[in-house]
Write a structure and sequence with these properties.
Layout (H helix, E strand, L loop, with lengths): L2 H19 L16 E4 L3 E7 L2 H8 L8 E10 L5 E3 L11 H5 L6 H15 L3 H27 L7 E3 L4 E9 L6 E8 L4 E8 L5
Antiparallel strand pairs: 1-2, 2-3, 3-6, 4-5, 4-7, 7-8
């Protein structure tokens, strides 16, 4: 194989690889509509929890969280009143994994990808490194960072406080270690107007 043909093959390989395996659009996690959920409704507020199946998790997040030892839940709170509510960390009796840790399962391995692209480029066509490979690696890092930021906002971690404004409907993900998951647990909400804590006993057995 002559030198020009080697360059051409290397360029074509890099382009095809980068186009086929490049960073996808960051997931924006649209609002989910659950087919099965445990719902506790009171006069002014409704709390619902859905346990995501393997298929739902794979379709939505792009990976099987259950296979990774994490049970994904979807919390929906629908506030129909003029009162504001707060869900503090101690008001949810479940061990939780942070959205930052979960997002790492969705990340590209930037180092490995750039490493295995750089070696052929050094041998066949070094201009591919600054022209194609470095921008590709930067794109992977940007994707990882944006995915982490987006999922953190949508996840109720162990230290996160959730505020529900009057007449607001909110949705958050809760990731529970499979070893700590149980179908029955309590969720408490603090009513900032009455200064009372309202308890919502959840049973997810019907939502599995």
């Amino acid at each position: 194989m002559n030198k020009k043909l080697s360059y051409l093959v290397a360029v074509v390989f890099c382009i095809l690889f980068l186009v086929g395996c490049g960073p996808r659009d960051v997931r924006f996690f649209p609002r989910l509509r659950a087919s099965k959920e445990a719902v506790i409704a009171k006069a002014k507020i409704e709390v619902a929890v859905n346990v995501m199946s393997r298929k739902e998790c794979s379709d939505y997040f792009g990976f099987d969280a259950i296979a990774e030892g994490v049970r994904p839940l979807v919390l929906n709170i629908n506030n129909k009143s003029s009162d504001a509510y707060v869900l503090r960390p101690s008001y949810l009796a479940l061990t939780r994994v942070s959205g930052k840790d979960i997002s790492k399962l969705m990340h590209y391995d930037t180092y490995q990808r750039v490493f295995w692209l750089t070696w052929p480029a050094i041998i066949f066509w070094w201009p591919a490194i600054p022209c194609l490979i470095i921008p590709y690696g930067f794109g992977c890092q940007q994707y990882n960072a944006k995915t982490s930021k987006t999922l953190r906002k949508m996840t109720l971690g162990a230290h996160d406080v959730l505020e529900v404004a009057p007449y607001e409907s909110v949705q958050r993900f809760i990731f529970v270690p499979d070893a700590s998951f149980r179908t029955a647990f309590d969720i408490a909400l603090y009513n900032e107007t009455t200064r009372a804590i309202e308890l919502f006993p959840i049973n997810c057995a019907q939502a599995l």
